[in-house]
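Quick entry, no commentary yet.
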Amino acid sequence: MFQRLNRRARLLSGVAFGAAALMTVGSAHAQTAATTTAQAGDQPTEVGEIVVTGIRRSIEASISAKANNTSIVEVISSEDIGKLPDVSIAESLARLPGVTMQRLDGRSQAISIRGLGPDFTTALLNGRELVTTGDNRGVEFDQFPAELLSSVVVYKTPDSALIGQGLGGTVDLRTVRPLAYGRQAIALNYRHEWNDIGALNSGTTDKGDRYTVSYVDQFLDGTLGVALGYAHMSSPYQSERFNAWGYPNYTDGNLLTGGVKPYVMSSELERDGYMGVLEWRPNDRIHSTIDAFYSEFKNTQVLRGIEFPLAWGGLAENPNRSTNPAVLGGCQITNNVATPNVCRPAPSLRPGYTVENGLIVAGAWDNIKGVVRNDLNKRDSNITALGWNTEFTLSDDWSANLDLSYSKVERNDIILETNAGTGRNINGALDTLGFQLTGDGVTRFASRLNYADPTLIKITSPQGWGGDVIPEGQAGYMNTPSIEDELKAARFSVTRQLHQSPFKSIDFGFNYTERQKTFVNDQYYLGVPGGGDLTVPTAFLLDPTDLGYLGISQVLSYDALGLVNSGALNRIRNPNADVISGNWEVTEKVSTAYVRANVDHNLFGLPLTGNVGMQFVYTDQSSNGFSARQAGPGVSQTVAVSGGKDYLEILPSSNFILQVADDTFVRFAAARTLARARMDDMRASRNYSFDNGKNNGNASADQNSPWSASGGNPTLTPYIADVADLSFEKYFANRKGYISLAAFYKHLESYVYNHDQIFDFTGYPTGGVTPVINFGKSSAPDNGEGGWIKGLELSISAPFDIFHPALEGFGAQFSASTTDSEVQPDPTQAPTALPGLSENVINGSLYYERYGFQSRISARYRSDYLGEVAGFGNGRTLRSVAAETVVDAQIGYEFQSGALEGLSVLAQVNNLTDEPFKTFQNGDERQTIDYQHYGRTFAVGLNYKF
């Protein structure tokens, strides 16, 4: 039941407490140190206490918080109340050393810390673990308005009092504390934004607005503080998107495009965020804070384009030769000549095509049956987060803290696809397409048909897809998944002040967290009533959409969701087994006890601070779901299933900061960390099959079993890593600048991967057949062997007036990191790449701020990496993402006196160089899978503070 404390955990424990013993020896050679600069040993650094009013003050506050924290951290501080340096939290995080960001539809959303992706990063709000709107644990940071946060702290090393720590790192989002802020403030912000490639779809906009109201005040002689904030955003974003199905080999051995699915996308992200803090400190012994956060988030994406099956496009015929090979098929009868109701021949590549280095790059296709797509993705979600923290000073030496929190996410999606073409399946006109691959891997076409003609292009099933449920195929598909994620937590801790070296205090605490996440998988086929083709009703018809970037002049456009909601198309629930087994529920009950000894010591004449400690983490996890098998076309058999596991992990940690000279520090940290598996990997649900033809005496569990399955594994244990960090930090110019060099090493003891496992299918339905064996193979996630990650980070922040007084106001920030890894969960297979890891990352910013003027230009580069993108059916897919450099800039002016004092104006541009997003396959960037062009986003705004 409980895992035994393994050898590595014991070794780390010995290192931590052996270091404490060494400090005791050191005290025999030096007197106890005088009180050093306050460190964040008792509580996380209260960044909100630093008043910031511009870019330079924001940088100074971040540097101060970094220097004063006992962990190795990176910090972002707001320029002023209601103002963070960037338009989103993810944009700001991506500028930090060792942190990278993946763009999603042109927006910064998912981050990686030190090469470990979103699944290995934990997000906190005011020190409390958060629920997530995604299917798993990774936080989508655009849910949180930057304007309502005062700071963000990224913990690269944990301590034992940090609950919810991640294996890659922990991101703590913090709202303002009104008593620490210490003065009244009312701030109003407004920004108007637009995209330079315009609104690409009919009925959409390329313009949006953001506005914020923030209020901070103190009452009752400074014992009661209030902070309130509201932030609204309506942000459009556009993209021209090319997607290739893949690149098979042609008959001559050269690669060619299997099919394409290009779109133009127009989206609008709407978000309303609310923040409230009530802080009460009636005396020196009681300090109580209630904070609340609520966010409503709506994201609507309109996608219109055309799908061309090419090398992988098949024929359609009547009769179908595959039903009875002895019968001639329709296309055999007509000798592959297109004939209504008899034959739609497969696409054919004309002779005379052009080949470059083994890839067919130009030519012409015959017999092409295009599928005009009018799609829509819509997400409605809301986050509620409540917390109540009370600190009690019991005596001069004893204090206690009680923290209660609750957070919940509700999310509903609509993923709608509708199909149109020249006719249903076999019928309809075919096209001849000329094609040429461009230098960026996008294919441009020259077509013969007018795909914008509503008398030619009708809602139908041009390829006959989905014919197992709807005869002759579906006219579309509607996926409406929903997520509910709920987390309740309670924490109690006690601190005892000590009056002797080497420890200044010791903390004891206990935290209990209960989390339940539910995924409901509703999916529907869409069909034309009575079959046949449907002319788009005039009420839903829109202006055609231009696909000029693809070479296709225009395609038919209509209001797809309005059409479906009108009842013009039938909705038929998908009854197949893979949909039923896509429903799941995962519950985690985590009890964490910890002890942390805080160091304040003089080691051989040098001030030494930090902490040593240990967490005892007991987890009881379980999952409920359904296992289902396909018993026939549109018929499935289902059984309710459940599973789970409990385990204990012991996590020692230590952080030491040795001041070797004035404002010069050497930091060392060692810890054992964990990251729980993805929640969809922990589902009990499975999609299984029973092959009656193998139900005989030759069957065995690992060979010729009638049973097989794929799905989740509710008995998964966490990823485990032992980590060590060493850094050198030099602060200068009164801590307005610093230089840091850090090295880290993470030994991954285990890593989750998919492979075949023997599974007991006892009780699973077989359709009345008695199985000769109840065991077979199930492809599912499992804990395998691990590997390692190592890296170096260099970061510099410098005001230029240290070089010459004439350069006052100018400054720069620079960071570079190199990371390497090797992970081999299955020793019989080659090592795998870590999702989210770029080997090389470089960030740089130049800024100027003086006399009210401010400007900044920033660039961030990351090399190729394995990224998570949406694949077939909106499922999770890992693809190679090409290297990119993204440049942003801003300029502004703040009135320093007169009637306009307190008013500032700002202009910004994101993606200044119009950097695209590109994925590819097989290590060959010519084999482009996704190519997305986003354009530049401009914003102008006003800020006013009373």
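second:
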Amino acid sequence: MQKLLSLPPNLIHCFHELEGVNRTDWFCTSDPVGSKLGSGGGTTWLLQACHQEFAPQVPFSDWIGREKRILLHAGGQSRRLPSYGPSGKILTPIPIFSWERGQKLGQNLLSLQLPLYERIMKQAPEGLNTLIASGDVYIRSEKPLQDIPNADVVCYGLWVNPSLATHHGVFVSNRESPEILDFMLQKPSLEDLERLSKTHLFLMDIGIWILSDRAIEVLIKRSLKSGTSDINYYDLYSDYGLALGKHPKTEDEEINRLSVAILPLPGGEFYHYGTSHELISSTLTIQDKVRDQRKIMHRKVKPNPAIFIQNSITQVSLSANNANLWIENSYVGKEWKLGARQIITGVPENHWNITIPDNVCIDIIPIGEHDFIARPYGLDDIFKGALNNETTMYLNIPFSQWMQERGLDWETIEGRTDDLQSAAIFPRTNSIEELGIVLRWMTSEPQLEKGKELWKKSVKVSADEISANANLKRLYTQRRNYRCENWKGLAANYEKSVFYQLDLQDAANEFVHLDLETPDILKEDAASMVRIHNRMLRARIMKLRGNGEWQKEEQAAFQLLRDGLLGAMSARKNHPTLSVYSDQIVWGRSPVRIDMAGGWTDTPPYSLYSGGSVVNLAIELNGQPPLQVYVKPCKEFHIVLRSIDMGAMEVISNYDELQDYKKVGSPFSIPKAALTLAGFAPAFSAERYTSLEEQLKAFGSGLEITLLAAIPAGSGLGTSSILASTVLGAINDFCGLAWDKNEICSYTLVLEQLLTTGGGWQDQYGGVFSGVKLLQSEAGFEQNPLVRWLPDQLFVHPDYRDCHLLYYTGITRTAKGILAEIVSSMFLNSGTHLSLLAEMKAHAMDMSEAILRSNFTNFGNLVGKTWIQNQALDCGTNPPAVAAIIEKIKDYTLGYKLPGAGGGGYLYMVAKDPQAAGLIRRILTEEAPNPRARFVEMSLSDKGLQISRS
């Protein structure tokens, strides 16, 4: 997906280097110097320039449909936000949100904007290939997106207060058909909105427009001067937009014919970053979005919530009086005196003794190889108007008054005086000491003669010249150097900083790139989750540096996770008591499970800090529960373990043999660990015995446990976890431990930690509990999911029953390696992974809703979406051999997926109808990919785990 950016001219030549992105995926240009094209003309210019750069030999009409593209308009003079004018508002650094995991210390507006736009375009239907958005807004949406209709123009809007809507474009729709645009208005009055509200609804335009290839061609045609290839000024919103809809405000036959759909952005939030005020107010609103202290991960309390410091070294003490203060990429020394409502940017290391009045901002811009420009300004300055006009404000007073207070006459102003933005009033110097003196004179000490002399003798430049000539590489280097010091401070002061909630994969890369010391191992009194993050971060840094000890650190992180999950369970001791007759057999049997949505969100550590949501169902195969366990007394005082399907047997005579359960691949790891948890090993026994033989004598018999897993390994149906639950359930009954099904599931989670295989809770809950279920857990080390049963209509009704197909692919893949990779990313707060997992969690709620409504088509489509999400999380989920099977049958399905971690095992398919199901059966039976591949009959289990006695 290509990104096209319209940027300030000075940024074009170095954007790719500064942002570390490639030129193929990222194209940038700027509007022609001196011309005003508007958002419509600018879109035309940007698309034509990209076409000429990459495929001039291909007709534009063919090129535009080849790939999805995101266009961001981020040029402009930035008069109202001067501090980020040179680098463009779109690259404004944004502080870490106090309540969010997985963000990057170097994040900016662009990196925050892009994920939503990419989500939208991935969901956009074929033919909708171009998304256009503004570079000075941040739009959030944590909820799943609705389906995007196949219209020529699709626009997103927000439900807002009418007073806010009067400052923006508004989409107006008839109450009878709210998804269809009736007409668009630009900045309507409150009276207009009140009059319309009787018959119409209105959404505020948030500047996210998706255009079909046809709509793009019409836009380009309107942007060109008649009969030429020259671009006119043409506005996407006030010109093109007003001609859209069923009853458009302007007549344009070709635009009027375009179909338009209006979508409210689900859970949308809109933050504008167009002015100095908005820089602070929007950031404060985001930070204040979450007030629940349980969700705020650091313990720092700022003296004022509207103080934002990043990429800086600040040595002054701040108080509640320093409200609305923004310090970025700056060195603020001990002798600085700050006030309120200030923006401090770009300041190099200094020893200034300076007082900055309220409402005064400082911006220092590097220019050339060694020089700096001093640009103080007022927070409300708009850099507009003739210098001699009394309404032209500079540093919060008329510019003429500013000159008068400093004893300047008009002859001292060289060049243009008709517009403050173009006036050469900002001094250039190569001395940091002189820079401080002239700043004092320009801001708070107008009688400082030395400052006046320095200003008069210096070369002076305008705001326009600053944007055109700033040395952005020096600006970025200074920011990176300050951030280097910030990394050290954040790591050392982790308890009161955002350090361990950051994207630690990014942090590891930064520590290596900046050659920073690896953070020390945290003490045992640190919070468990923080200690886990610490060890995994250390492991990743060591791995990147080629240090062979990294695996020990990673294992230490996993061990801390196991210790945390064992937690209170490790303190629970059990006293097994023989509870059957000498000739009785306890028989346990369980179905397997298919995860429909939300898989992976149940997996620690994600579920521990975010909670999980999963929809799954318990199924029997070929009419039988495929996992079975038999436990009976044994006359000899030892334990005999048998596996029917694996043809293996082992006799256990001592504790060492019993506790040897960590060997992956051992046929009896599960029963050994289950017996350990049941109290047949010292760690979990309520009584003390000198040997296993002594304990079994006290128990009254030995044990003989026989396992049968009538299902291939690596099936993806939760076999190992559910088998563990079945073993625990049978031993529980045999030994009179009185565990209920929830406790059996909890012990299964602990058992998997003992085996070091890891895993979440959805497998065991999926098999132990019957039917179709929505399973949800809260954050915390004690994961006790709430089980909500869903109706089974879609699975048992004759209209749908035969549409559910299960096919064994004959391809296997072990989940442990997959699990370790993804869990490591969870440990490291990988922003990409956390975003996907949040989507999966929300998706589970959509799946639940579809099942509750008995909407079969929606259910099938959501199964397909689950498969897409699983592939995004792990690219190995859909290997070529599996993809080849899917290719044969996909046109006959609503959705399909490999249950579990994927990569092999079973393929679950939702056929469009019974006839399509028959075609799928015929195709895959006649064209089986290997001798083991076959259909297996699945049926919903209405019993779950069953335990009975002979």
